[in-house]
Amino acid sequence: MEQLQPQHEQTERRVMSRMDAALRFNYQVISEEMALKDPYDPHFVLPRYFLLLTELDQFDQVIHNELKQLNEKDQQIAKILSLFNQKLNLITGTMYDSIVQTMLPSTEQINLSAIGLSFFTEQPIAKDSYVHVTLSHPDNFFHIAAIAQVVYEKFDTDHGYRIGCYFISLHPHDREKISQCLEQDKT
Questions:
Q1: Which of 72, 101, 172, 181 is 20 to 30 A from 22 via CA?
Q2: Helix (H, G, I), strand (E, B) or coil at 115
């Protein structure tokens, strides 16, 4: 279901599912050549907390899929591995609470959709520039890297420059994570 958020009628003219969210957010302006790379390419400056959390997400996805398949073949081994995974989650959760929390940047207000985002910054970013972004949901629903192109830059006396971008490189499973979050935000 598409919706228009009235608080952004003058700045957001598109009709689509979007949400304003407090996210952990990093960006860097990149060249057109770099914009052709995978958003998770090691040449990009990815924060350590982000790398750790994305690796944990990927590990959880693989374990979940493998346990489903193994459960069809041998339920007893699947149960043992599931318990092992629960213990691993407790260990990583404790590590997250004690170590990772201290590395996390504060959240920023981001307007997000499955095809783009807008954010505020103190410095202008020229239209048609490319930016590499990392987005982390504070409740760990997703940790996403993407490449976007700036479609507008507007000055706001209260917040600085509002930068609007559309994603030019976003993995399909990352787009799905954003879409799921948008659906949860509607309910």
A1: 172
A2: coil
One-letter identity of residue 99: I
Burial class of 7 by CB neighbour count within 10 A (0 to 12, 13 to 18, 19+): exposed
For 12, 19, 91, 100, 151, the CA distances from 154, given in Å and listed in that order, are 12, 19, 45, 34, 10
DSSP letter at 70 equals H
Take residue 180 and report the two structure tokens written for it.
């799921």
Predicted confidence (pLDDT) per residue in 137-186, tens digit? 777 677 889 999 999 999 988 889 999 999 999 999 889 888 888 887 66
Superfamily grouping for domain 6-47+105-186: predicted glycosyltransferase like domains (2.40.10.220)
CB 167 within 8 A of CB 116: yes
What distance in Å separates the CA atoms of residue 92 and residue 48, rounded to the nearest whole number?
15
* Predicted TM-score of the model (pTM): 0.66
